[in-house]
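Fig. S4 source data, part A: sequence.
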Amino acid sequence: MVQVKASIATKAATYARLGLRNVWRVARYRALVRSGHYKRLLPVGKPVAGPFFAWDAAARGAARGPDGIDAVAWQQDGERVLRGELPVFSRQWANYGFPPAWRRSYLTGVELPAAQPHWSEIKFFSLPGGDIKGFWEPGRFDGLLVLALAWIVSRREEFREGLTRWLESWSAENPANQGVQWACGQEASLRMMQVLTVAALLRRWADVAPTDALCELVAEHCARIAPTMQYAVGQDNNHGTSEGAAMFAGGAFLERHARPAHREHGRQWRTAGQYWLQERVARLFMADGSFAQHSTNYHRMVLDTCSMAEFFRREFSLPEFSAAFRERCIAGLQWLEALTEPATGDAPVLGPNDGARLFVLHRLPYPDHRPSVALAASLWEGRRPYADAAVSEPLRWLGVDTAAMAGTPRRPDRLWPQGGYARLQRADTWLLLRLPVYLFRPSQSDALHLDLWHAGANVLRDAGTYSYNTEQRWLDYFGGVASHNTVQFDDRDQMPRISRFLFGAWLSPVAQSFDAAAGTVTSGYVDHRGARHVRSVALDARGQCTVTDAVSGFATRAVLRWRLPPAARGELSGDTWKGEGMQIRLRASKGFKRVALVEGWEAPYYGAMNPLPVLEAEVDADATITTEVIFET
């Protein structure tokens, strides 16, 4: 693919769109890092010595736990953790050792030296072991949560000892502010929220109290997060929500459990965290419920963060969040619910997808979004959208009302004008069209991408992300137009790339309309080089889909792509692809230069990719291309 470099004028305009205040926040943070400010402000600490919980005789009594929990399965998972396995990127179990090798990358196997520098001296994208997320994964403490749940349902001594060894090992090898595990405020936030969840569950189900050592560990994390909050805010992404929620919950925990020396700090952190969480949600969850990062998985992550903040608010009997905060959480809930398949929990893999899934109090697979929808619906609306008991397991663990009013999932035909999405459904076919609307920075070139679902299956799909730190060709591919169901002009992206996570010359919609009753949606754009693409989509009563793409203003060629499922079997004959239960018929106003079935790639999970067939149709002059997707019922 041809990479178009952004001009100085384009970069300047893009930075203005990001917001000069945000640019200043990020620039100031980087200057403070270079000056050594954070190394002086947050010096390397000493390991916190346990015990971290007060395990008494009563706590080792008969097993308790929510009704209907698969205690055997949780114990089996706990046994895997003790054998040295961890669930990584929500995809598979991998060997990290026990306690985990905190300095070894799951992705590359490279282990960093024991003598690590201060976190402010670590270069994220030039580590010897490659992608820093390979080092961070065990530090998110999914394994600690599994051990806690396994112990609660069994009271087996090896799980209690394993939980103790986990925290002791962590503290001994990762003193405050030293090394890769402290390099990111959001990672510290997610880790602390997991620790607080473990503490809440142990107290709820076994009357196990936290000790001063656990309070010290929480205070270290709050102290790491607070000074760099402005940097998190300046990014306008989920860093700000995670860090605000963590300070709120961590501060409230210290107010309740810490000695007087930490309680005042706890109050300050709680107050600041609540302010920033509410401010970030008001800004980043748009009024229509879309999230700023244009990502299904990050949307789920932020919704879970807000749900857990509400859980901790109730746990510590604190005043309610603002009405505006509640309204945005409900709007965000409705967005995710509309995109979630009721039978499986699958949803489109829109935008960045890094495998993040926290507070996993169920055993359903990563693509299943229903537990997040169910928890948010119960907390914010007193509603239970799914009857499946496995979906509501987190509610039972957290003591949230599971007798809430039962109902059916809400999945309306809808336009989200601020986030840039349109959903239509007829019969058992539904679609999501990604409109060329970017009120916040785009990290993928995905304008007019179409996700199509039939009978619960994603028949035309997005590619995912693969990795944030990999070869340039894969960064270009997965973040670029070639990995989406849309049109590519002249072998380039729809927007010029400025950096790893940023495009310039953000697109704006033209010729936009939405008619839910008629089952139609139209939108288009003109890019920075004058190429024009207008897409009209229609669903008829039987669920057959017709897409009309009018393309013009390009130099040499326009390529339309339809990305099929990896297991799709079919044949291309002329301008028609015939598969099992589905046909795709193509025609162009002036004929095609080429129609071919080629190999493409998708990454349904972070760090893993697999091939899939892609149907390409190419024209070399202004044209109108019509695609009919016909399902055999």
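Fig. S4 source data, part B ends here. Residues 260-284 form the longest helix (25 residues).
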